């Protein structure tokens, strides 16, 4: 994984979760670039190291060697199949160009940049994706990064970010804080625990993530606040380059954006898992994607017994969240 200061040009998006000390930022240059946060099997305690890196920088990259049960070739085959269905209009759950946030139209005629609901039972490859989502080792990292017991984990989202049909970019944003928020409003939200872990699993090398380390624990500077939403270079931004099989966890309220290259293959699994500790705090972020419409009908037929039990409990917690939350609306319906 490469971790480099940016010089402008093409980029992408990011996300994760933590409760941290907060400070209002000022427009001063950073003393030094953050250290490379790449955790592998050489770490004495990779779970603790991942948590410390995520706390410090707002993101962390985990080596493919930490997830020996991931079957990259099987995932690529399943991803290729569902992507072809999405581009042809056979699979209706898609992220369509040029819309940035849900809800997305189901018409792929203008192109797509994502595929939704990989775990949906009508997806013929849903068991292949489920094996990576409910992977025992992945869930250990998720619980550590959230700061909860594995028995508290809640099923949320599993989608995929794909090569767009034309070059496409996301604006600078935080996932759960609007661009119009005042510094005080930003700090109020950033001081709260996020109660989930969010990650990208790259099936092919992926250089699409652009973020500003440390912005998950401070308000925006004046230059960040006043910049063009698609500014190619902001002070301190970096590009995170993932090798195939690597997993990047990131804070969903870190300041980030994405730029998608239509000439480069991309299939990156984009997942999130929550915790019962959140109550209804995560309801809008999760349910605005429509997962509640099919999760209650989803079963675990075909799963290995141990994985089936984990998946069943996590799904039941998601269904309960949907029952108690009602109409949650959308983060930015018209964008």
UniProtKB/TrEMBL annotation:
Short name of one Pfam family for this protein?
PhyH
List the SUPFAM superfamilies hit by this protein, alphabetically.
Clavaminate synthase-like
InterPro entries found in the cross-reference section: Phytyl_CoA_dOase-like
Q: Which PANTHER family match?
A: PHYTANOYL-COA DIOXYGENASE FAMILY PROTEIN (AFU_ORTHOLOGUE AFUA_2G15850) (PTHR40470)
The identity of this protein, by name, is: Phytanoyl-CoA dioxygenase family protein
Report the source organism.
Cucurbitaria berberidis CBS 394.84
């Amino acid at each position: 994984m490469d971790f480099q200061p940016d010089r402008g040009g093409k980029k992408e998006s990011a996300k994760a979760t933590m409760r941290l000390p907060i400070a209002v930022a000022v427009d001063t240059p950073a003393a030094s670039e953050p250290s490379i946060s790449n955790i592998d099997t050489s770490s004495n305690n990779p779970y603790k190291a991942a948590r410390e890196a995520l706390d410090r920088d707002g993101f962390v990259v985990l080596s493919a060697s930490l997830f020996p049960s991931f079957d990259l070739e099987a995932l690529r085959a399943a991803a290729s199949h569902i992507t072809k269905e999405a581009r042809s209009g056979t699979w209706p759950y898609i992220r369509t160009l040029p819309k940035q946030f849900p809800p997305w139209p189901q018409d792929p005629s203008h192109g797509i940049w994502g595929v939704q609901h990989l775990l949906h039972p009508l997806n013929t490859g849903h068991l292949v994706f489920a094996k990576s989502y409910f992977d025992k080792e992945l869930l250990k990292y998720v619980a550590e990064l959230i700061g909860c017991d594995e028995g508290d984990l809640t099923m949320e989202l599993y989608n995929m970010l794909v090569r767009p049909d034309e070059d496409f970019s996301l604006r600078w944003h935080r996932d759960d804080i609007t661009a119009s928020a005042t510094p005080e409003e930003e700090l109020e939200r950033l001081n709260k625990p996020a109660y989930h872990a969010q990650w990208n699993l790259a099936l092919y090398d992926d250089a699409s993530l652009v973020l500003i380390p440390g912005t998950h624990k401070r308000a925006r500077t004046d230059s960040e606040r006043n910049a063009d939403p698609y500014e190619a270079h902001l002070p301190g931004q970096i590009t995170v380059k993932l090798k195939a099989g690597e997993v990047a966890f990131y804070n969903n309220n870190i300041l980030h954006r994405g730029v998608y290259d239509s000439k480069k293959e991309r299939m990156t699994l984009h997942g999130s898992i929550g915790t019962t500790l959140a109550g209804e705090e995560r309801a809008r972020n999760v349910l605005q994607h429509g997962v509640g419409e099919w999760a209650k009908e989803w079963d675990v037929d075909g799963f290995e017994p141990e994985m089936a039990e984990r998946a069943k409990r996590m799904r039941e917690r998601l269904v309960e969240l949907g029952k108690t939350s009602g109409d949650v609306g959308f983060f930015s319906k018209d964008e």
